[in-house]
Amino acid sequence: MGLVALLVAGLAVGSLLLSERLRLARELASRLEARSEPGGRADLGPAEELAAARRGRIDWAPKLAAVAERIEADLALARIECHSASRNTPARLVLTGRARPAGAEVEIAGRVMARLGEDPRITEDFPGVQIEALPGDRASEITLVCRRPGGEP
Amino acid sequence: MIAPPRPVSRPPLILLLAAGLLAAGLLIDAALARPRLRELRRLTERRTEVLLQMARDIERDSRARRLARLLGAEDLAAAYAAYPRGDAPSFIAQALERARLERLELTVGATVAEGRLRRADLQVRARGSYARILDLVRELEQGPRLVRIRTLMIQTEPESATLTAQWSLSVYDIAGEP
Lengths: 153, 178
Prior knowledge:
heterodimer, A: 153 residues, Gyrase A, domain 2, 20% strand, B: 178 residues, 2 domains, 4-stranded antiparallel beta sheet, 4 strands, 50% helix, Type 4a pilus biogenesis protein PilO (chain B), Transl_elong_EF1B/ribsomal_bS6 (chain B)
């Protein structure tokens, strides 16, 4: 008889514990549901695309400012070309000018290359500065190209 | 010799009654506990789902904050609200005016959908000093609207101190309401 009474008491306690656990689980679930209410969240899509387009862009203003500061009287610039990378062409900055005095083109080109090559605003995107053309077709005209080594976009 | 028959011992009635009640109690308890256990299992699964969703939401919110900062705003809703929506040629014409450059040409090219963005291509030619050209380039690159300078060519005009600049630009808009 005692054993039966013990079993009945055990069943009652088990049932109470189960009810309590269920109540807590319901309460926790409803709190979590309330906290995870969707809504008020802006769509990430356009922002991600804007950010990706911005990341892939070369900013030319710092480079043009660097050119203005680093090119001295020994090279009279006639043309500056900024080309962003396109499908088949890598990004590059092309500077064309005349050496002053004429006849010292190689030396002047070397000096200008060194000055541009030590400016982080240029080297950030273009670690390499190369001579593309020295006088030949046009008297004393020098063309310098800043591009990535290997020419990758 | 025949053994005398053993007396049959019968369990007391009270014990039988208790056993019956216990069996009935067990059955009733099992019947009541089953749906509660089922609900408990469902709630546990739901809690796991909600916790996973919350983890995803937290990651998404932190990504949203990073993107908003990149677009120069506190949150994405503010970034979208602040994103300029005027038409691209007027935007460039106003920027040329602000930079005090003499506009020589402003040609509107194609408008192309790029994912959730709309890209308008323009050709611009203007005349002015190097400082003013630089001002315009800076404004376009640092402004809230995304502009990509595809090509820029600056050249000296013969027998003159002024420069002519020619841009090939892409101006980006957000297509529709984000």
